[in-house]
Amino acid sequence: MFCFSRLRHLCGSLLLCTAGPLSAQQLSLADALRRADEQNPSLHAQDSTRRAAEALIEQAGVRPNPTLDVTAENFAGTGALRGVDSIETTVQASQTFERGGKRAKRLSVARREREVADHEFTVRRAEVLASTVAAYIDVLAAQERLALSTASLDLARETTDAVAARVKAAVASTAESARARAALATARADHARAESTLTQARAALATIWGGTATDVTTLAGTLRMPDELPAAETLLAKLTTHPRFALQQATISSHRASLQLAQSKNAQDITVGGGVRFLRENSDAGLVAGVSIPLPFRSQNQGNIRAARETLAGAEQATRVIDAALRASFSAAWQDLQISRSIARDLRTDALPATEEALALVRHAYAQGELPLLGVLEAQRAHTVLRREILDAETASASALVRVEALTDPAFPLTTALLSSR
């Protein structure tokens, strides 16, 4: 006879494995975020871009070097200029003075570019952390799917053993034994797929910090529904703090500085020189001085100015595009969160108790010889399918919550509180 108490024990074990106490060896969400923040390869690459932008500030402040000209005249000619007796030598130093504040504007552009690089790093870091939390959720879900498949496998083994005993006692047919063995084979295949999914999820999480699946053992936390959520308006108000807005503002400032630099290049630089001219014939010497100013008959920089102005206008328009895109992403994530929470709550509150009651009744009827094994297997399958649907809904809810917080608060306080709760 099938042991109904064993069924209750297996179901209880499944609940414990998804909500039991945490061990000291488990990887917490905070640990995963710290590893990603410190070891993610793309963040290291982005940090190199920031340092390169810092070096360009130094380069932008460089002033033009002075030049030294040495000119020899009136030698190796004909007549009186034959040979070097009449040679005249001029030694002159000259310095170019930039006009229009070019150096200050170059520095301004370089500093704005450094700010852009800083904000790009912030945006990339937020993306990496969001990917880490999402991957962490995937591993937790894979852990719970494996626990569910393990309980289902144990139940299938228990059923197979019970049917074998009934066949041996000549109170059940061999056809029932075949059906039980088929169900057991299906449960084994499902368990193998769950193990593979967990390994892949662990590898995806570890890859974020350049590790492997062996770096990720059991994770801390459980997937469950948050009791309450902040109002959508409260979260939406935080959308303006998204790092993409700060990046866009820095980009606008950079383009504005580039326009000012392009306009400053219309101011012509002045080159001032001075030196000494030596006369070979009588050993006399005299001072030489000069000023060089380009004649601006036509502008040489109008195209660059126009391009800089159009680029700035485009960047200013892009702010509204970013705002619309972020609001659309928030709306989609919020809707997914609300729907998945509602589905999970209804299934767990209403459908699961009814399914468990039906399974218990079917088990009892089978034990009394009132129902065939096929009804038992169908009831078990329905119970397993429902548990998976609940897990899928709770996983979707947690993933949607991650998407919402990635848009409104990159510190992920709601998700962290959810996963750290017991």
TrEMBL record:
**GO MF, one annotated term:** efflux transmembrane transporter activity
Residue ranges annotated as coiled coil are 175-204
Q: Which family does it belong to?
A: Belongs to the outer membrane factor (OMF) (TC 1.B.17) family.
Protein name as annotated: TolC family protein
Query: Which residue ranges traverse the bilayer?
Result: none
Keywords for the protein's UniProt record, in alphabetical order:
Coiled coil, Signal
Q: Where is the signal peptide?
A: 1-24
One Pfam family linked to the record: OEP
| InterPro entries attached to this UniProt entry | MdtP/NodT-like, OMP_efflux
The reply to whether Amino-acid biosynthesis figures as a keyword in the UniProt entry is no
